[in-house]
Amino acid sequence: MEKQRILAMGNEAIALGAMRAGVRMAAGYPGTPSTEILETIAKYNDGKIHVEWSVNEKAAMEVGAGAAYAGARTLVTMKQVGLNVASDPLMSLAYMGVKGGMVIVSADDPGPISSQTEQDTRTFARFSKLPVFDPSSPEEAYEMIGEAFELSEKYQTPVLFRPTTRVCHGCAGISLLPDLEVREPEGFIKDTMRWVIFPRTSYLNHIKIEKRNVELGESLSEYKRNFILEGKGRKGIVTAGISYAYTREVMPDDIPLLKISTPHPFPEKLAKEFLEGKEEVLVLEELDPMLERELLQTAGKYHLPVKICGKLTGHTKNAGENSTESIRKDLEQFLGRQARGTREDGKDSEQERELPELPVRPPVLCAGCPHRASFYAVKKAMRGKKAVFSGDIGCYTLGNAKPLDMVDTCLCMGAGVTIAQGLHAVEPDAVNFAFIGDSTFFASGITGVINAVYNRNDIVLVVLDNSTTAMTGHQPHPGTGKTIMGDVAAAVDIRKVLEGIGVRQIFEADPLNLKESADAVKSASEGEGVRAVIFKSPCIAVERPKATYEVKQDTCRKCQACIRELGCPAIITEEGTVEIDETLCYGCGLCSQVCPFHAIGEVNPNE
User: What is the pLDDT of residues 487-541, one digit of tens each?
Assistant: First the structure.
């Protein structure tokens, strides 16, 4: 019977591979580039899998741990910075172990394209003493994740799975395979010596882990996805992940190559075999020089006279993602000859002409975004006053762009609330605002608000409630009253949460009503203690206003106040004339409230 073949995104392939491997629990928190994994499982779930968007990555990890304790195969998904949030339970899980296979997908974002950091999950694997799989393509990821589950159950350990952005969001043809045979979960069996973590238990388990990783490294030298491609000469290439795909595309066929798919525990035996007889080896990897360091250690341990080149020696760049073009240059400099696909004149044979540089397109708030109105209301209310605006992670981070210029700090999710407290402690004469979105409030903001109330701090919390998790693709959250599977759930009321915490002054306003919003901000700024302003208006992708707006040219004075104040992408100028692009306008009406000459109004459909 011919295998069914589909075109799938890498994240879809990972999800389908996990379902093929018998996953029974899938939990995570949305974050690019990992988001579509859980969404795909939810899409194809026949009811046998418990799927949830957890409130944050720590909660997802702990929910997954419970399922794995009961013998179920569990998948937990997040992006690389989410692994920081989940690291507390994960570090303990590394010592405790699991019963059912548990795979943690931590999608790395070299570049970074949409992240705060370029941290490398492979390095975290070494730090946490956990195995890590590093797929090089969507096709490989589809099969490899099943192998990760099998290894997890064999060694009773959580396993990290590290796709990068180009694997997650690349598309490829996938040949669907029969489901793997997986035993039914036997349920939780009480055993306090195993499931209750004590210092003595951790000490004994640490000894076992170190021994296990040596054995695991030896067995991974035989793993089929760690392999050597034979070649000629005494120069060789070592690579992994998506860099392997780029390398194979441009590398001459006669160069020896070592592919590493399990960076930790490192397949030392295979690496030693490859290094023997080599004079120089070039390591091509993203992001940390992890393979390079492992190879240096292996060469030193066995006294192999081979030079290891890579990030540490300046032969490759030490930040950012690789590409076919960058690896072609690295190879040519290392080999001293042209790579595959390079013309005699040194140009890419597929690039017959010089292409112009792409224009710089900084991200901006969408036309009609209620966050623009919220920021502007605070800016208008606080004009002439000393104020600091602490931001957070989400669409509203884009409030830092001019002309709004309303995000003075941004560190990580939930940090705006607590940074504002630290700022106020040092500079009490300033009004310290903390902006946070509704999804982020539930994920990591509540603790910070409790801290402010408990320590009698003086901040103004501004909750930008747009009824969705917008930046990562409009996923539901505890405040939406809906789960990832579309089930109706009890919506958690942000105002009631704040009241329960002890916030006494809470103001609510529609940010698209400028006067009402500015008045709410003024009232909050004049209070004491922890005050909150909840701006509630749905994201334009959730609910689009019915009206659109236009500039009345007979009234417009061409002062361009609407452009200078708001920076809305729908407001444009054509030869000095201010116009509103009707294809971009979402009818928020903010510009009509800002115009000093009342020259902007709703489009009359009857005209």
Answer: 888 899 999 999 999 999 999 999 999 999 999 999 999 999 999 999 999 999 8
pLDDT (0 to 100) of residue 342 = 63
Rounded Cα gap, residues 129 and 210, in angstroms: 8
Find, among 170, 169, 167, the residue nearest to 241 by Cα: 167
> Is residue 549 within 8 Å of 476, Cβ to Cβ?
no
Strands 227-229 and 159-161: unpaired
Residue 485 and residue 381 share a domain: yes
The full 3-state SS of 361-395, as one line of letters, equals CCCCCCCCCHHHHHHHHHHHHCCCCCEEEECCCCH
Q: What is the CATH number of the domain that holds 263?
A: 3.40.50.920
d(CA 204, CA 591): 66
Provide the percentage of residues in the chain whose pLDDT is more than 70.
97
Query: How far apart are the C-alpha atoms of 195 and 11, rounded to whole Å?
Result: 32
Q: Give the CA distances from residue 340 to residues 192, 269, 283, 309, 323, in Å, rounded to whole numbers and listed in that order.
A: 59, 30, 18, 21, 14
Residue 471 has pLDDT above 90, yes or no: no
pLDDT level of residue 352 (50, 70, 90 thresholds) = low
- 253, with CB counted inside 10 A (0-12, 13-18, 19+), is exposed
Q: H or E stretch including 540? A: none
433 CB-near residues (< 8 Å, 6+ apart):
378, 382, 387, 388, 389, 390, 420, 459, 460, 462
CA torsion, ordered 320, 250, 161, 173, to nearest 10 deg: 120
**Integer Cα distance of 72 and 64 in angstroms:** 9
* Cis preceding linkage at 287, omega within 30: yes
The range of the structural domain enclosing residue 456 comes to 370-536
Residue at a domain's end among 174, 196, 219 = 219
Polymer length in residues for the chain: 607
The pLDDT value recorded for residue 487 is 87
* 324 Cα distance to chain centroid: 24
Q: Is 439 exposed, middle or buried (0-12, 13-18, 19+ CB in 10 A)?
A: buried
For residues 151-168, average pLDDT = 97
Higher-confidence residue of 294 and 349: namely 294
Bridging pattern class, strands 235-239 and 257-259? parallel
**Average pLDDT of the segment spanning 136-145:** 97
AA letter at 304: L
Q: Give the pLDDT band (50/70/90) at residue 355.
A: confident
Q: Which of residues 313, 335, 357 is at a domain's end?
A: 335
pLDDT computed for residue 208 by the predictor:
95
